[in-house]
Amino acid sequence: MIRMISDTSTLYAPKDAEAIGAAVTPLSVNINGNTYREYADINATDFIKLIQDGGIPSSSQPSIGEKMELYERYPNDDIIDLAMADGLSGTYQSACGARENSAHKEKIHVVNTKTLCGPHRYLLEKAIRLTKESDDVHAVLNQLQKSIDNSYSYLMPQDFAFLKRGGRLTPMAATIGGLLKMVPIMTLTEGDVKKLEKLGIKRTLRGAFQMVAEDLKAKGIDGNHLITISHALCPEKAMIAKEVIQEAFPDCEIWMLELSPVFITQGGPDCIAIQSILK
């Protein structure tokens, strides 16, 4: 049997992931001297209120011990652990460390998904479907890799200070922090270890969404891809994004998702993420 493991970068609460046959570990946020496990101890609404009241958040990944405990539940099964993009979080490195300390590490496959949020959620759902069709762990991994290799992400932050504090920017990208009367469009760097870099700057949010649509078109996105729009509790702005993306890609399925506290920590309140992945 193949067991699927991931974390709340999938935007799945642990109980909801369990319902589809997966186990996810909650990521944690720190604010006002307290640590909260997202989806367990705090939700996005309450978290944003703490920020609005002056709290400065930071995030942390699951511990190696927590991952090892999860791995040891299934000593006789193959395990696929779909980790959030290396470079944007230490989650992947923690999972690799847990694997190395496991008594059955040869049966544990830690995957750097090179993505997060919407595409990460899709990868978990795809993996669940694949494991119902096949018990060949390497065949499942190969199919997942095809999607991983064809994923793109864009972020439109409303408060650049969150990204700068998190250290997830390239040095050049960090210099645009003073331009927030404009709308910066960030995208993930190439390679296995991800950072955020500047794609461009627009005067309006709609213009930013149109730039993302143009870039996705240049990358060949079509009806074989899923597009996700995730937002930090700003549904009106997310609907503008959906209008622009739906017009540009009428054949694409579009998911609308709410970001969790960890990703609000990274992108800030009111941020919008647009992402795509090959189905």
UniProtKB/TrEMBL annotation:
InterPro entries: DegV, DegV_C, DegV_domain_contain. Keywords: Lipid-binding. The keyword Phosphoprotein does not apply. It comes from the Bacteria. NCBIfam families: DegV (TIGR00762). PANTHER family: DEGV DOMAIN-CONTAINING PROTEIN DR_1986-RELATED, FATTY ACID-BINDING PROTEIN TM_1468. This is DegV family protein.
